[in-house]
Amino acid sequence: MNVMISRVAGAAVRWHDLPGDGDPIVFIHGLGCASSYEYPRLASDPALSGRRAILIDLPGSGFSDKPADYDYSISHQAEVVAEVLTHHGVSRYFLYGHSMGGSIAIELAERACAQVLALAVSEPNFHAGGGEFSRRIVEQTERAFVDRGFRQMVEAETSAWKGCLQNTAPWAVWRGARSLVEGVTPSWWARFAQLSCPKALIVGERSLPDADAQKAAAAGIPLHAIADAGHSMSWENPSALAETLAHIFTSG
C-alpha cells in the first residue's frame, strides 16, 4: 500500500496501485466507504483485467488517517485526490466516483479536465440537500452523532457496507454528510453538465425512475443502468458495473 502526507488534510493518505496496462482508472468511494474495501472485486473483474487501477482511501476512511481537525468537505477531498495523483506521478487517468465520491470526482475533473480521459459517476450527489442518509446524519449535532448516533448506525447496519462504515471516523461521516447537504455553487450537476471531458452517468436499475437520469439523457449525456442493482451497485452486481466501466473507458 502506498502512502503520502497530505498538505490539505494534514494526515497520511493511503492507496493501492494495482498493476496493469495503460492509463489507470482512479476509483473514489462514497460516504462511510473505502476504496480498499469496496473496489478490489470490481477492479479485478475480467472486464477490467489487465487495467491499472488506483484505489484511494480518502482521509477519515479505510487505511488512511482520520484527523480530527480536517473539515472533510467535498472540495477539500477533491484536492486530496489531486495531491495523491500528483505525488504518484499520474498525469492522465480515467476517473470513477460513486455517490459522494461522484461529487468529489466532478470537482476533480473540473480542476484537471485536461488530465481526465473520461469520467464516470454512479448516482452522485448532484444537488444541495444531500440524500436521505446524509440528511438523517446532520439532523443530529456532530457531538451527538460522534457520541451516540454513529454507534447506533453501525449496530443497526446489516449490509456489506457495515464492514467499511465501522472503520470510518464518525466525525468524517458527519462532516462529509454536512458538506453534501450544504452543496456548492454552481451545483455539482451544473459542473458535471459543463465538463468538456468525455463523461457518463451510471444508475442502478432499481433506482429508476430518477429525475437526474432523465436530465442527463435529455442533455445527451450517456446514461447506463446496472441491472439487478440499486445504489450499492459495486456489491450488488460488480460484473455488470465493471463491464459498463470498461465500455465507458474504452469508448470515452
UniProtKB/TrEMBL annotation:
The record's Gene Ontology cellular component field reads:
membrane
User: Per its UniProt record, what InterPro entries does this chain match?
Assistant: AB_hydrolase_1, AB_hydrolase_fold, AB_hydrolase_sf
Residues in domain AB hydrolase-1?
A: 24-127
One Pfam family in the UniProt entry: Abhydrolase_1
Q: Which domain of life is it from?
A: Bacteria
Which GO terms fall under molecular function for this chain's record? hydrolase activity
Q: Which UniProt keywords apply?
A: Hydrolase
What PANTHER family does the record tag this protein with?
A: AB HYDROLASE SUPERFAMILY PROTEIN YCLE, MONOACYLGLYCEROL LIPASE
- For this entry, the protein name equals Alpha/beta hydrolase
Species whose genome carries this gene: [Enterobacter] lignolyticus
